[in-house]
């Protein structure tokens, strides 16, 4: 009986999709084109464009060890500030992709790119569901231009593309933050009474765990999720049975969330609450965070401009200023008409809390800090576009069309294939091949002199090729110190001084002298040997 019900449900879903496509052929074809463009921008020569620096090298080393040695990581990567560690969920997510790619780092990068394409679709889907146009029999039959604008701009945004073609823990945050927001919306919309509310709460717990384990600024998503969870609870009112089911489902979802976050708790217990203390300092120390009122308001403005300029406006400052002005006016209208009542209220709260929270951080804000906000401005501007198109003012429609066309033009100029590849992974491979060749099959140590301590990117390929590279260990120097040390200097030669570098991988080798040197990919590779000290 259950199997038959499942089959009927699947047939009903397929039937609805088929009906929608037949009634919306034009929108379907445009959406398909947007997805194809988004996929092309993310997958085009991905091995040449992908970021492959110290963080990415470290991650593939850890995940490879997990796969080959069955050594599951209990903690994720460290953050760039605050001496904090993230959870290990992203490492587990990487593992299947790395294995399927035969340990090529391109595998996890392709995984992120495909997740980015799914996010493009998700932006269209949510915009269309939240802000529908004319419907017939429950199916939208009018072209939802707003949803297509939101998805189209997201598909070609240079900043979004940059973080959609490399394997890095913050790069999964846009998808999982959007999934978290959509999950709480489905919970709120059902008023806790739907049979599927438990599933949406569980989805929320899982997706938000991924958000927090991709970057801790995802904490600023929590107030929005909590407010709409409370609103759902208030909507249930006096229905004790529904309220009991809702609370029980919420407890189950929170328990699952806590289980996924438990490795961090175990780590803290074993390391004298290092993460907890670091996070507390990060968010409360006057040295690291917190600003005087005027400076704080200025920071909110600068953060808002950064979000709209770098995300939907193709990094064009003038378009960014225009988008900020339009968005402020639109948000004021939303708060006046839709405060905490519908999807408008959820979207506006998501953006407002996110911007205010991020501005609270005193240090420099980078684009990847904003992953939990990435989809939001696209949804907002897409919805605004639909509002303009619903208006009978022809001049407004013409101006909107010209503006969108200019945004597309500006964005394409900063997208592949119109920008030069970084060649970070091909460079690492080439340098590693030279090291392996010059080592001549003998054991050797490895170090790097660079801005990002990129030793791991060369080490990874040397390990998977079976080279005799050995990590120096002061406690067992007798067994881990070899007769040759290869040092990759990524600076111009005048700034390279490998025999006097403070790098631990060099100082552990002992007193050194330069034995040989080679120019490789714009850098210099040194072979060092020991100096006999009597």
UniProtKB/TrEMBL annotation:
One annotated GO molecular function: pentosyltransferase activity
Keyword Ligase: no
Alphabetical list of Pfam families matching this protein: PMT
UniProt-listed PANTHER family: MANNOSYLTRANSFERASE YKCB-RELATED, MEMBRANE PROTEIN
Topology within the bilayer: Multi-pass membrane protein
One BP term from GO: lipopolysaccharide biosynthetic process
UniProt cross-references to InterPro entries, sorted A to Z: ArnT-like_N, LipidA_mod_glycosyltrf_83
Keyword Heme tagged: no
Top-rank taxon: Bacteria
Segments crossing the lipid bilayer: 28-44, 105-126, 138-156, 216-234, 246-269, 289-309, 316-335, 341-361, 368-388, 394-412
Keywords for this protein: Cell membrane, Glycosyltransferase, Membrane, Transferase, Transmembrane, Transmembrane helix
ArnT-like N-terminal domain segment(s): 136-266
GO cellular component, one term: plasma membrane
Main location: membrane
Subcellular location: Cell membrane
Name this protein carries in UniProt: ArnT-like N-terminal domain-containing protein
């Amino acid at each position: 009986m259950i199997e038959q019900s499942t089959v009927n449900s699947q047939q009903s879903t397929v039937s609805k999709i088929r009906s929608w496509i037949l009634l919306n052929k034009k929108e379907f074809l445009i959406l398909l084109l947007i997805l194809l463009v988004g996929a092309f921008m993310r997958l085009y020569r991905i091995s040449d464009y992908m970021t492959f620096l110290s963080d990415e090298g470290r991650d593939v080393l850890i995940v490879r060890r997990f796969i080959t040695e069955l050594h599951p990581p209990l903690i994720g990567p460290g953050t760039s500030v605050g001496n904090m560690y993230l959870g290990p969920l992203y490492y587990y997510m990487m593992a299947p992709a790395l294995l399927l790619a035969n340990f090529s780092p391109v595998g996890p990068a392709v995984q992120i790119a495909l997740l980015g394409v799914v996010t493009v679709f998700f932006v269209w889907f949510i915009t269309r569901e939240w802000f529908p146009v004319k419907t017939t029999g429950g199916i939208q039959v009018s072209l939802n231009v707003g949803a297509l604008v939101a998805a189209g701009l997201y598909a070609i945004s240079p900043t979004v593309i940059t973080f959609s073609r490399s394997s890095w823990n913050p790069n999964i945050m846009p998808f999982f933050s959007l999934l978290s927001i959509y999950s709480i919306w489905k919970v709120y919309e059902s008023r806790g009474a739907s049979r599927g509310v438990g599933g949406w709460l569980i989805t929320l717990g899982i997706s938000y765990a991924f958000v927090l384990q991709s970057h801790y600024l995802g904490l600023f998503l929590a107030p929005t999720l909590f407010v709409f969870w409370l609103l759902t609870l208030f909507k249930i009112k006096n229905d004790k049975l529904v309220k009991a089911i809702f609370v029980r489902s919420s407890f189950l979802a929170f328990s699952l969330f806590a289980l996924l976050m438990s490795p961090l708790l175990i780590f803290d217990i074993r390391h004298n609450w290092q993460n907890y203390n670091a996070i507390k300092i990060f968010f409360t120390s006057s040295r690291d965070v917190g600003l005087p009122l005027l400076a704080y308001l200025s920071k909110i403005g600068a953060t808002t401009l950064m979000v709209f300029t770098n995300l939907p406006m193709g990094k064009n400052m003038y378009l960014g200023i225009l988008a900020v002005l339009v968005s402020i006016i639109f948000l004021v209208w939303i708060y006046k008409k839709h405060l905490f009542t519908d999807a408008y209220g959820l979207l506006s709260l998501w953006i407002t809390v996110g911007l205010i929270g991020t501005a609270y951080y005193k240090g420099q804000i980078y684009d990847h800090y904003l992953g939990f906000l990435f989809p939001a401005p696209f949804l907002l501007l897409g919805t605004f576009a639909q509002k303009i198109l619903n208006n009978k003012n022809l001049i407004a429609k013409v101006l909107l069309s010209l503006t969108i066309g200019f945004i597309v033009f500006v964005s394409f100029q900063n997208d592949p294939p119109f920008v030069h590849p970084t060649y970070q992974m091909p460079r690492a491979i080439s340098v590693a091949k030279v090291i392996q060749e010059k080592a001549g099959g003998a054991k050797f140590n490895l170090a790097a002199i660079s801005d990002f301590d990129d030793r791991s990117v060369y080490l990874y390929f040397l390990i998977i090729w079976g080279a005799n590279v050995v990590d120096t260990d002061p406690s067992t120097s007798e067994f881990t110190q070899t007769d040759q040390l290869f040092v990759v200097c990524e600076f111009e030669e005048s700034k390279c001084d490998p025999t006097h570098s403070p790098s631990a991988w060099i100082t552990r080798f002992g007193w050194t002298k330069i034995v040989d040197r080679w120019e490789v990919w714009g850098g210099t590779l040194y072979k060092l040997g020991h100096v006999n000290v009597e």
